[in-house]
Design a protein that fits this description.
Blueprint (H helix, E strand, L loop, with lengths): L8 H5 L17 H9 L2 E8 L4 E6 L4 E6 L6 E7 L2 E5 L2 H8 L8 E3 L7 E8 L12 E4 L7 H8 L7 H13 L3 H4 L7 E9 L6 E4 L8 E6 L3 E7 L19 E7 L23
Antiparallel strand pairs: 1-13, 2-12, 3-11, 3-13, 4-5, 4-9, 4-12, 6-7, 7-11, 8-9, 9-10
């Protein structure tokens, strides 16, 4: 039974929102330094995430990496870990709380508790022009989790193995020598690279639409700490119609890693772990 609206319903709705985490006190990344370092950097490695598969890559602190669309419109699911301690990993929820639902130039991928420090900083985004569209959609979200076989089974009774969750598990297991069962707990919520998403205004449901990405578009990052990354070329392709599919047009994604020349980062230091004392009131 639906309850009647209170007499002051409109007044309650009209209360102005308050930003939960004002971010004007966050450390400001030295983007000019990072960009200058990238301009003179040397490419040291390159990997491709094949269509409907994932690949791992490593980026030392102070290096840069670029994720590129190379053959056709394609979105990717990105996991990041501290290369020396997999328990420190990308925290999409806190990154969303600090920056918003979608990340772009100058914003950061933050790590999980108890570390909570910058893992990577976005220094260039060729899709920055897209902004927020009329539907509330934007690019590079931290609101979706990743396509996975469990939700597919729940909703459709399927047994689909090339979803991003499974792709990332296989890639991490291959990279580290772990079994699939050992690797799965380390796979986490992602940065949805190039994906165009938002929430419907009427029902509040997560939606996707055709990504604006085209070959040549890229997202550039500065590695704040030693990183192990895994990128899945999503089986939804550009996510214009299907989320996990063997029939959607899919393409590989390229990851390039660059080393700065000597002296390009003079004065820069990798961020330390969060300064909270860890006593939790005891």
């Amino acid at each position: 039974m639906l309850m009647p609206h209170p007499a002051d319903a409109d007044a309650r709705r009209a209360v102005k929102p308050v930003i939960c985490y004002p971010n004007d006190t966050l450390p400001v990344p030295p983007l000019d330094m990072y960009r200058r370092a990238f301009e003179g950097a040397e490419k040291v490695s390159e990997v491709f995430a094949p269509a409907r598969e994932a690949a791992c890559f490593r980026v030392p602190a102070g290096h840069m990496f670029r994720i590129s669309s190379v053959e056709g419109p394609q979105v990717g699911d990105l996991n990041l870990w501290n290369a020396n301690d997999l328990s420190e990993r990308f925290y999409s929820g806190k990154s969303r709380a600090l920056h918003g639902t979608h990340l772009t130039t100058g914003e950061r991928m933050w790590s999980s508790f108890p570390y909570l420090r910058p893992m990577a900083t976005i220094i260039e985004d060729t899709l920055h022009w897209y902004g927020m569209d009329q539907y509330g959609g934007s690019v590079h979200d931290v609101i979706g989790t990743r396509c996975d076989p469990y939700t597919g089974n729940l909703l459709a009774g399927s047994q689909y193995h090339h979803c991003c969750h499974s792709n990332l598990i296989r890639a991490l297991a291959d990279e580290t020598g772990m079994s699939l069962a050992e690797a799965e707990p380390f796979v986490h919520d992602v940065l949805n690279v190039f994906m165009c998403t938002g929430f419907t205004r009427d029902t509040g449901q997560y939606f996707m639409k055709a990504s604006p990405v085209r070959p040549g578009d890229h997202l550039d990052f500065f590695a704040e700490i030693d990183l192990l990354g895994a990128l899945s070329a999503c089986p939804g392709g550009d996510c214009s119609s299907e989320h996990s599919s063997d029939t959607a047009a899919c393409y590989p994604l390229k990851v390039e890693v660059f080393a700065p020349v000597s002296g390009a980062l003079e004065g820069w230091e990798s961020p330390t772990v969060n300064g909270y004392d860890g006593t939790h009131g005891r």
